[in-house]
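Morning!

As promised:
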Amino acid sequence: MQSGGIPEPTVRRIAHIDVNAFYCSCERLFRPDLAERPIVVLSNGDGCVVARDAMVKRLGVPMGQPWFEMKRFAGKHGIVAFSSNYTFYGDMSRRVMDVLGRFSPDQEIYSIDESFLDLTPQPRLSGAVVGQAIRGRVRRWTGLPVCVGIGRTKTEAKLADWIAKHDPALGGVCDLAAMNGIERRDRETAIEVREVWGVGRRLAERLRNLGIFTVADLAAADPRHLRAHFSVMLERTARELRGEACLELDEVPPPRRQIVASRTFSAPVYTPGEMAESMRTYMGRAAARMRAQGSVAGAVGVWIETNRFRTHEAQHNGSATIPLPAPSDDEAVLTAWAVELMRRIFRPGCRYWKSGVMLLDLIPRGSEQRLLFDAPLPETEARRHRAMQTLDAVNGKWGRGTLGLGSAGLRGPRHWSMKRELLSPRYTTSWRELPVARA
DNA sequence: TCTGGGGTCCTAGGACCC
DNA sequence: TCTGGGGTCCTAGGACCC
């Protein structure tokens, strides 16, 4: 600190909470018969494993394992698989975040199953007490299990949560902020540097070459040295591990700067006509998400891909991007550009397995520069905007794909649309699929 | 037969300007 | 003839996250 008169900065106390094996726990909620069964949830198209419960992790199934490769293994070990049901998980997420928000006025919703809370305003309650209160209430109100980590910074709170998950003796709560330096060092000496938030596989490898193996090693490293050898990101991470806050709590998520919609097809696509259908479908989703955050796009991009695992087939990864004459949120305009771009890169004779669209250079609606000439008449534009609002309202109420432009979403599934053979019901968001209780 | 989808940030290097 | 140096903007690619 400087000289007298300037108060010590208050030590912050940040909690990080996440749901244990979130998607799997959701699936188990309405299936008490699966309480003792190992569960996995598969990616879109039933491609590979994106969530495993504790039992499956113990069986050694890695994240990203292709489902077709482990079907037999799953049968042998009684593993139950589900297609991902994002409508259901999204609804459960909202409920969990709601409960967590009651524990602090300052909440950052970091991902579908993770939240940071600033506990600094309640210094008198011990971390253990708050942590157990959070666990208990989330369990009672939503049925889902969570762990709680508490630290002086976000990075430390994430680490504490990791410890809470991996040390059963802690009962699901770990408060690193309450530990003294020696206790904290003991914990951090026992954890590989790879587990730190912001340290991925590559960085961990390079750090090991410099003799930095554990969390304690990283915390003890010279931050300026880290900045010179790596980046400011790693410098911040190291400072955060020492209790020096470098990352703020983002209570209001900043608007997205780009939006992507893409899928792997369930059967190859050979014709530009079918590919154009996929462009229309994905642009419908992307544009709706963009309008929901009140943005317009300054540029559009598309890409198409063959199956890289089929090495004997002709390979083509094509992409194209174009700045728009004027920023737009009009689905008809955006779709027309996407289809046009796709036609420029499409190669006849290729078996395409995946495509996607991107909305780029997003800016808030109303702040865009207007075209000097050729500008659409204001009433035309207003009418289009109202049409888009209606589209979003109808799809919001009756489900995605109820209303669409051109041929997108008006008929049933295409032969290329994604596979979801193991889908659970939409228990909480569809009257027709409510769980049934029997006497 | 079958191998996910959606984001962010940082850095390096080139183009361009004065 | 000699061939500086700093700033900004843009893009591609790498790395990370869930």
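DSSP finds 14 helices and 13 strands in chain A.

Hope this helps with the figure draft.
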